[in-house]
Amino acid sequence: MTLLDYLDGISYTASISREEMGETAAVSVTNDSRQVREGSIFVCVRGGRFDGHDKAAEALENGAAAVVVERDLGLARQIQVENARAAYALLCKNHFGRPGEKLSLVGITGTSGKTTVAFLVKSILEQAGNRVGLIGTIHNQIGEMEFPAKHTTPDPYQLHAMLDRMREAGCRYVVMEASSHALDQRRLEGCRFAAAVFTNLSQDHLDYHGTMENYFAAKKKLFAMADAAVVNLDDPKGEQLAGELGPGTVTFSLERDDATLTARNISATVKGSSFLMVGERLIQRTKVAMPGRFSVSNAMAAAAACYALGIPPEQIAKGLAACPGVPGRAEVIPAPVDYTIIRDFAHAPEELEQIITTLRPYKGTGRLITLFGCAGDRDRTKRAAMGEIVAKYSDLAVLTSDNPRTEDEGQIIDDTLPGLKRYDTPYEVIPDRYQAIVWALEQARKDDILLLAGKGHEDYQVLREETIFFDEKVLVQQILEEKAKGGK
C-alpha cells in the first residue's frame, strides 16, 4: 500500500506532494512511538499525560513514512488533520482493507445491559442461521472461538484486525458493545452500523465525562453512524433520544403500548423470565434464562435490534430461549450448599438496585446478603449511593474492595459508609475481598441468597500497580471445598 491508499477517505493537508505520496510505500500504522519502524505511519495522538506530537520528529528519524499531526510542526513528511484520533481509526480501517464494510455491524450502547444484549443478539442471529462475531466486555468471539478482551471497545487497530478475522471466518454479522469512552475517543470512526441500540443511562463514568450531559452526548454519537436506531422508551434519556431521532426509530418498552415492541404478561422466577412480545400484528411468546424485569428489558432490546434487521419474530423467540445466560450477569455459582450464591457485575447504583430488588422476592424465609465494593480511581460521587441501596434492600451487607487500583482502600470505604449507615441493616467491613467472601460464606445459612456484586465475569483484581488472579466463581468453589475437607 502507498500513503495515498492509507489516506483514502481522510481530509488532510500535507507537506508532501500527492505524486510523492502515491509513490511512497507504507506498511503499518501506529499511535505508539515505540512501535515505529521503516515504512510506518505514526499518528500523533494527544492524551492526558503524553502528546504524540513530541515524538513526531523522532518517528521520522526512525524510518516513519509519514507522521499524522493536528498542528503544523514544520516537518518534511507531515500530514495534518483536524482530529488525529479519528484519522487513526480511518487509517487502521484502510490498513485492513475496510473489513467492516463487508459485515453487518450491530452496536449496543448504554450504562448497563450492553453485554447481556450483545450475547442475546448473537444468539438470535445464530439461531437464524448466521455466523456471528462478538466484540465486548467479557471476551471477543468468532463462532465458538474466544479471545480475551482488554477493553469493552478495542483500540481501532485491534478492532479492525478482529473485523478482518471475522470477515475471513465467514461472519455475516458482528455484534459490538460501544462504550462511551470509545465513542468520545472516536475509536469507531468510519464504522457503519446496520443497527444501533440504546439500553439506558444512569450515573457512571463521571470521572471521565464530568457531567451526565457529556456522558449522554457521547452515547448519542453512535446513532449518527447507524442505519437503524433501537431505543428503550422506558428510560428517560431513551425517550429523549427517540424524540430527537424521530420517525423510523424502533422502540421497545415494558410499559408503553406506543412502542414498536412491548413486553406483556411478564412472569419471572430466579431461573428465568417469560413474556409476550407484542407489536403491530405481532404476538410472540418467548422466554429468557435470566431473572427480573431488567433481564426482560435486555431481551426486548435484543429482540428489537433483530426485528430492525428483519429477523422473523419466531426466530427471535427461538434465539432468546437458546441463550443459556451470560457469565457474571445474575449467574448462579454451582455449589453443594443449601443457599444460593450469585455473582453479578453490578458496580453502579442503578445496576445494584436492579439486581438486589430482582433477587429479594426469591429469598423466601432466608436472607439476602450483599457483598460489594466501589472501584478506585473512578467516580467517587456514586459510592454513598451504592452503600445506601445495599443497606435499603439487603438483610446483611458486607463492604469490601472492588478494584481499588491506585486509590487507598480505606478512603473508598469511608466514602461508601455514609450511605450504608442510613439504614439499620447490619453490616461488616472487611477490606480484603477474599477474606470478605470467606466471612460471607460462613454467615450464609439455609435458604439465604448471597450476592457477590461488582466483579461479575472478571477474573482479576487491580491492587495498586499489581493485578492478581481473582475469579470469584473459582474462589468460592475452592473455599467451600476446603471447608468441606476441614469438616471431615
Can you put this structure into words, describing what you see?
The protein has 488 residues and is an alpha/beta fold. The protein contains 17 helices and 24 strands. The strands form 4 sheets. The protein has an 11-stranded mixed sheet, with helices on both faces. It has a 6-stranded mixed sheet with strand order 17-18-22-19-20-21, sandwiched between helices. It has a 5-stranded mixed sheet with strand order 1-5-4-3-2. β14 (261-269) and β15 (272-279) form a beta hairpin. α13 (349-359) packs parallel to α14 (383-393) and α16 packs across α17 (472-486). The longest helix has 16 residues, at 293-308. It is globular and about 80 Å long. The termini are far apart. 51% of the residues are buried. The mean pLDDT is 94.
Concise summary:
The protein has 488 residues and is an alpha/beta fold.
Number of strands: 24
As a whole number of angstroms, the C-alpha radius of gyration is 24 Å
Tell me the number of helical segments per DSSP (H or I, 4 or more residues long). 17
- The fraction of residues assigned to DSSP E strands is 15-25%
Return residue spans where pLDDT drops below 50 for at least 5 consecutive residues: none
Major β-sheet profile: 11 strands, mixed
Kindly report the oligomeric state of this protein. single chain
User: What structural class should be given to the helix and strand makeup?
Assistant: alpha/beta
- Order of neighbouring strands in the sheet with most strands: 9-8-7-10-6-11-12-13-14-15-16
Q: Describe the global form.
A: globular
Separation of the first and last Cα atoms: 69 Å
Helix content: 25-40%
Instruction: Give the rounded overall mean pLDDT.
Output: 94
